[in-house]
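User: quick one, sequence for these tokens?
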């Protein structure tokens, strides 16, 4: 008499001596699990192909124009451009309104003109600042100009 010590690979239950063992995808399972697996087969999962990295950044360099600087990142031609920075337009407008209001009151009380007029002059120069740069046509890289 042989003794079987088999366990179901699905539910880990012991399969008795008098019970029939079933094979499901190269594994031994009990009758209940075999019936359940036949009624509800496990879906196969498609594994997507491995992702490829991004295309190389450097291709053949574009044709070079004499006298035009070349981008260090991609080798493309660069153009002269300006970058706007530090716009304080709202503060300038507020200072202009305050200066005009102080000047209007200053028409009655003349020493206030000494505050109102400088407020108006300072507000005219609060627009921001532009710095000269080289900008790449191909990749958009920016390098400061001297």
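Assistant:
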């Amino acid at each position: 008499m042989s003794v079987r010590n088999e366990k179901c690979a699905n539910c880990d239950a012991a399969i008795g001596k008098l019970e029939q063992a079933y094979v499901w995808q190269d594994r031994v399972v009990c009758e209940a699990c075999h019936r359940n697996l036949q009624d509800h087969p496990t879906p196969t999962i498609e594994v997507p192909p491995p992702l490829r990295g991004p295309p190389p950044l450097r291709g053949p360099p574009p044709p070079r124009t004499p006298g035009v600087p070349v981008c260090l990142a991609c080798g493309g031609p660069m153009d002269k451009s300006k970058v706007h920075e530090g716009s304080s337009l709202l503060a300038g407008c507020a200072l202009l309104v305050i200066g005009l209001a102080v000047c209007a009151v200053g028409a009655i009380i003349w020493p206030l003109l000494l505050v109102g007029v400088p407020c108006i002059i300072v507000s005219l120069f609060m627009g921001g600042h532009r710095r000269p740069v080289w900008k790449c046509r191909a990749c958009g890289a920016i390098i400061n100009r001297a």
